[in-house]
């Protein structure tokens, strides 16, 4: 892959700044024009009278995902057989370790140690899994069915809603920005590309299964139909669209035109879609942030600890396994980073645009760049360990 596609761009470098601006704009929008975001979210596909898919958000999130998928060369997967050890390590960390450490860490911090600061009695309204006909006042998991603006919603403890967002982040291994992190750490680009392709395919099967399992343990809604629909809309659809359109464009216009022109054309669309989605998310959660301005910090603490922990475990295991630095660095960085686009999309579809779960996934975007750049710097300083 060309350097231009791997190097960190202006938008990615200052992603934390853009997210901070989205917080300000979103909170201001929620205070000055509260009906705007609600009107957009009301444009939805309904099942049994309940909103399931917000059409504007679905469009935005598709254009966040498609540019990621179209960059992946799935033909690289065949080379995975030449690097069994780093591939096995990465898959083990991403799917057998990371989701579960995220659950434990997030539950400990949000549900125990920081619960008082979040508000032990604070509640959040999330969607009821469609297909369930629950009565008002009925108990479901850790929530109670209530009527809100004429729609049945599930009232759950706010910290559990944040926990749901953290779970979704933990089950979504990075398949986008990790190309940048691996390049900056001077890692094996071939291994990084192979793992991006493999994780995208594995996600089709394991994302829903593990997410549903952990949500159930957390006494949160387990909307299996919504999980499958989310995987179909936000992973499978852009994945197949990216795969086939990439093949057609490269065959028709050539690899150089694809990398230099087409991918560059998509970047502004991706940026606009991401920023618009974030503004809408924060326009709904403005009251929560204003009433408890440290909310983002409380969510960021377990997410940051999880990121550093997974990086450290993977990096040390890679050293113990005798991997070269070129394979160890991207393996650790893949495990540490999250596919926040999928997490945001799934949280919005399952729990709603105004849910604490959606807000928690956005905090993942906020901390991603500074933390990952710090870990890249650590990798570059410790090459001598290998």
Number of helices: 17
Uncertain residue ranges: 1-5
Strand percentage, roughly? 5-15%
Helix content: over 70%
Essential attributes:
386 residues; alpha+beta; Na+/H+ antiporter like fold; four-stranded antiparallel β-sheet; two-stranded antiparallel sheet; 17 helices; 8% strand; globular
Question: Could you walk me through the main structural features you see in this protein, from its secondary elements to its overall organization?
Answer:
The chain is an alpha+beta fold and 386 residues long. The protein has one domain (3-120, 159-385): Up-down Bundle (Na+/H+ antiporter like fold). The chain has helices at 3-6, 10-13, 15-32, 34-42, 55-70, 84-113, 115-118, 158-170, 178-184, 189-217, 224-253, 255-284, 286-291, 295-320, 325-336, 340-351, 356-381, and strands spanning 44-47, 50-54, 123-127, 139-140, 143-148, 151-157. The strands form 2 sheets. It has a 4-stranded antiparallel sheet. Strands 1-2 form a two-stranded antiparallel ribbon. Strand 1 (44-47) and strand 2 (50-54) form a beta hairpin. Helix 3 crosses helix 4 and helix 14 packs antiparallel against helix 15 (325-336). Residues 1-5 have low confidence and may be disordered.
């Amino acid at each position: 892959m060309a350097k231009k596609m791997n190097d960190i761009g202006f938008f990615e470098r200052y992603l934390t700044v853009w997210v901070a601006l989205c917080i300000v704009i979103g909170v201001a929008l929620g205070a000055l024009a509260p009906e705007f975001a609600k009107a957009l979210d009301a444009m939805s596909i309904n099942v049994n009278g309940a909103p399931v898919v917000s059409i504007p958000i679905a469009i935005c999130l598709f254009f966040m995902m498609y540019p990621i998928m179209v960059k992946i060369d799935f033909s690289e997967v065949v080379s995975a057989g030449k690097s069994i050890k780093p591939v096995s390590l990465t898959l083990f960390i991403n799917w057998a370790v990371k989701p579960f450490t995220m659950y434990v860490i997030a539950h400990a911090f949000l549900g125990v140690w920081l619960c008082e600061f979040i508000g032990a009695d604070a509640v959040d309204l999330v969607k009821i899994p469609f297909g369930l006909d629950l009565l008002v006042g009925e108990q479901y998991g850790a929530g109670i069915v209530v009527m809100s603006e004429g729609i049945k919603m599930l009232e759950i403890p706010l910290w559990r809603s944040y926990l749901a967002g953290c779970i979704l982040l933990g089950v979504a291994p990075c398949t986008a920005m990790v190309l940048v992190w691996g390049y900056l750490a001077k890692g094996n680009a071939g291994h990084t590309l192979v793992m991006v392709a493999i994780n995208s395919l594995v996600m089709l099967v394991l994302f829903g299964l593990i997410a549903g399992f952990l949500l159930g343990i957390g006494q949160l809604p387990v909307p299996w139909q919504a999980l499958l629909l989310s995987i179909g809309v936000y992973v499978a659809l852009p994945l197949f669209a990216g795969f086939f359109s990439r093949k057609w464009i490269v065959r028709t216009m050539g690899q150089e035109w694809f990398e230099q022109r087409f991918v560059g054309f998509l970047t502004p669309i991706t940026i606009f879609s991401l920023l618009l989605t974030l503004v809408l998310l924060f326009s709904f959660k403005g009251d929560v942030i204003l009433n408890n301005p440290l909310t983002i910090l409380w969510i960021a603490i377990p997410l940051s600890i999880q990121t550093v922990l997974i990086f450290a475990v993977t990096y040390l295991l890679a050293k113990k396994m005798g991997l070269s630095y070129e394979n160890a660095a991207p393996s650790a960085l893949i495990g540490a980073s999250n596919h926040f686009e999928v997490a945001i999309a799934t949280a919005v579809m399952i729990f709603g645009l105004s849910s604490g779960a959606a807000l928690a996934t956005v905090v993942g975007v906020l901390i991603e760049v500074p933390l990952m750049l710090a870990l890249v710097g650590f990798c570059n300083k410790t090459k001598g360990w290998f």
